[in-house]
Amino acid sequence: MQFNLDMPGNIIEIALSLLSWGLIIYFIFHLYQKQEVKPKIWKAIIATLVGIFSFNFDFPMFGTILQIPILPLGVWVLLWYASSRPGAWDKYGRYAWLGFKANFIFLGATLLTVFLHHAIYPKDELSTYIADYENASIIALHPSAKEEVQFHKERFAQQFDSIKEEPFDSIDWYNELTFIEPEDRKEQFPYQLFGTSSRWGSGIPTLIYVEKDGKGILIDSSENQRYFRSEEAFLKGGNDE
Known about the structure:
Helices cover 41% and strands 19% of the residues. The protein has helices at residues 11-34, 41-52, 73-82, 88-120, 126-129, 153-159, 170-177; strands at residues 55-61, 64-71, 137-140, 150-151, 164-166, 191-194, 206-210, 216-221, 225-229, 235-236. A 6-stranded antiparallel β-sheet has the order 3-6-7-8-9-5, with no helix packed on it. The protein is elongated.
């Protein structure tokens, strides 16, 4: 099982992961109750865990990697092990296959996690990335940044709902800078916004950069970069209040 969202605290992923393992535990005990000759329960659990190992086809989709099980490697290993032990496969083979089928439970959980996460935490809304900015502050990252610039929290709050995502091509911007001499180069995003947090439960780690005019916000998350822009500058100081 592999969620590739890279989001510590992703509440949806945690909940569906627990649900997936709960289903597997349920199926283990369901098989165990149906067997006339009961195997040792701890061996049944180990056989299930071994069966999970498989050769997977990785398929990128919606910013995550879906692992589609192709070959039941764990089942083959257990079959080889049981071939020299009469009756072992009859006892534990079904658990190995349950382990392999569990990969499809994990795959379904991954898909559901992706769809629910995109639905609950829209990636084109600034509030997904900046839900709390009560203790936010600005630091300069580049010599071209103006001195004594501060975050204007009240002005930012007034226009927060109107700040929209706009197209931004970071590759073109970088290519333009390469033709400028280093001593004449002015960083497009010379400030970083600290002390913010993303929406609760999203688990989205972000780096937030502020444009030199104090109106643009570049969100650098684990998935990609997104650019938002306000109508008025939300930085004060540096002779630009």
